[in-house]
Design a protein that fits this description.
2 domains; Tetracycline Repressor, domain 2; Arc Repressor Mutant, subunit A; about 220 residues; mainly alpha
Length: about 220
């Protein structure tokens, strides 16, 4: 009979170990890739020169690294949109929607989107121009625009509940507000040198007027 000391214990199964350092390096790589993608999109050729390979070259990594991080061109575009959103302050929308007065909420929403579009204008102009001919990009832009439409629908619904806007005018008001707060409208207003701040003031006045008309005050 073998002695207890001669019995070999089964080797322990290898433990999975998520290194904080490895996670930090991966996060830094992701940030570098998103920055490289943003820079590519801001170039004159815009989306025409945009691919996983092009982003990898600009970031100084292998294409596989980009693929492992994002999996697809569309996912990478989504990451760029999310980065623009964070830098443009769209996280403030949570506080905007928490405002109990929908009129105040709408007044706060306008500058949030104005500043967002102004901050990402070089890239946004490229993306909007290319969206018509790129189904993948068009779908990504549509999804994000529908999020804005949803926020506006919530605010208008609150106005209807308060009796400030008639229910029969709600859909038209949402569509009008959606157009007024979109990137194309701001870019048209700034095309001839008008500052984003002045353009935002015009948009705010138009939004206020649209609500008043829907309320039957004019």
């Amino acid at each position: 009979m073998p002695s207890p000391t001669s019995i070999k214990k089964p080797s322990a199964a290898p433990r999975s170990y998520n290194s904080p350092l490895r996670a930090a390096v991966a996060a830094q790589t992701r940030e570098r890739l998103v920055a490289a993608a943003f820079e590519l999109l801001a170039l004159p050729e815009g989306l025409r020169g945009f691919s996983l390979e092009a982003v990898a070259r600009r970031a100084g990594v292998q294409r596989l690294t980009v693929y492992n991080q994002f999996g697809s061109r569309r996912a990478l575009l989504g990451a760029v949109f999310d980065d623009i959103a964070v830098r443009g302050g769209l996280q403030r929308l949570e506080q905007v929607m928490a405002e109990p007065d929908p009129h105040v909420g709408l007044a706060l929403l306008v500058p949030v989107f104005c500043e967002f579009y102004a901050d990402g204008q070089p890239v946004m102009a490229q993306l909007l121009g290319a969206g018509a001919g790129d189904p993948e990009l068009k779908q990504s832009l549509r999804e994000r625009n529908e999020r804005r439409r949803h926020l506006l629908r919530v605010l208008v619904a609150r106005m209807v509940e308060q009796g400030d806007v008639g229910a029969d005018a709600a859909d038209d008001l949402v569509d009008l507000l959606w157009s007024l707060t979109g990137a194309p409208f701001l870019m048209e207003l700034t095309a001839n040198g008008r500052s984003p701040q002045d353009a935002c003031a015009l948009i705010h006045a138009a939004v206020t007027d649209a609500v008043l008309r829907a309320a039957g005050h004019r």
